[in-house]
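Hello Y.,

Per our agreement to keep a running log of every chain we model this quarter, I'm adding this entry. I've kept the format consistent with earlier entries: sequence first, then predicted structure.
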Amino acid sequence: MKLNIKIFVLAIFTLTVSCYRETVVFDSEPDAGLKLSSVIRINGKDAFLDSKLNMMRFSVSSDSLNNFSAFTTYNEKSEVWFEEKELFNNQVNAFGKIEVGIPYTLKVKYEGVISEFDFVFTNLPIVQIITDTKIWDEPKSLGRIVIAEPDKTAYWSSYAGIEYRGQSSRYLDKKSIGFRLWQNTSDRDVYSESLLGFKRNSDWILNSAAVDLSGIRNLVSFIIWSNMDTIESGGEAKHPGVNLKIAELFINNRCQGFYIFSEYVNQQLLSAAPEDVLYKAIDWADGATKFENYDPDISSNCIWNGWEQIIPDCDNLLRWENLNNLYEIVVNSDDTTFKQKISRYIDIENFIDYFLFVNLTFAGDNTGKNIFLYRKNNSGLFQIIPWDLDATWGRSFDGSTQNHEGILTNSLYHRLFETNPDNFITQLKLRWTDLRKTHFTESDIREQFAYHFQELQKSGVINVENRNWGNNMNLQSEQVYIGTWLAKRLTYLDSYFNTLE
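Predicted structure for the entry above:
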């Protein structure tokens, strides 16, 4: 489709010149307010610079634009050319037809020295972390977050506390990052904001997806989990979870490749009341988080039996009695008591859906770890919230391939199958049959993967990803692998549920 779009652009161009005349240094250091010199700004948004690759990337909302025009300004001592066409300062300039993912040539002449850059338009949002200190696991380092969205005419910026995160990813070269919004340079002044169209929150995650050869397993998995929700108007969600988007990440003037921008599970995301509780399984704890056993001596700190208390804030109030009661019924009760009472402790519909979901995705790392247990006081029933779904869809936590056969479970589910409370098995089979007609169809799942593979592929950021991290990520090959594995997995699961009694 031909588009005739004129985008008015305010560009502020500042150069830093090295002491050597043969080159111009664009890699400026952050100023006192943790801001970097901008190379070019379009519609209030910077073109983000990778000084090592001599590349700039700019976020646009359309995959291609015909007769693209923009109001351009730059350093008054400079001359700038786009594809050998001079861009005049403080004027509307015609760039011609542009497409995302294609490297165009941008030349800048400053004091007689010409520097050349690859200028790439991208369909993805761009996040930049600006910091003048090293990023640690903890404590959080002071930084600034800048976000440019494709469909926004201005960039968003804020101080933030930055840290590496993830029990395993923190040891990888490409690390996952978390950040908390600060109103100023003090970690005491935390505030919430809606980012990338998501619910207001103070805490956010940039998932590196470093072991996922597709980069999008976690993203697609959460979309399917959300789509499974049977919530009706005015009802409560059975599938609390997070929203995610693919984004490009820069740290100062260096592109890190793509990351998965994610919401964070906390009180703000869940709109949790003071009486609610949220526990996160952070360790297998010799089977305790799979309900094989547990230590009955209730902890006096934030960790107990491999679970971390998230809500309420464990530094202010410990509330392990709810989890202890669940352990008592699952681990210690006889079959009759379990069958009669388990539905008073867990949301059976939610647990059914999680069993089907974790087996569809074959999330072997999520049967007793990488899950949250959430209990709203007004219902008194625990729900499962999934987490960290990179090791899914035919690959393990280390990126190795997985067979399509096998059923994932834990001791809580064993008891549900053995005692069959509320016709659990019948409900499970009926729900599988229903989902196989909707969100679990092979075509629907393939379409989810295909869309996000395409978004990632056309941005061209995979080239940067592979160059930065020494990877050989091949999206086409991985898409074929997932599709082949998926077809076999669905056939296997259909047979399993059809014969289940």
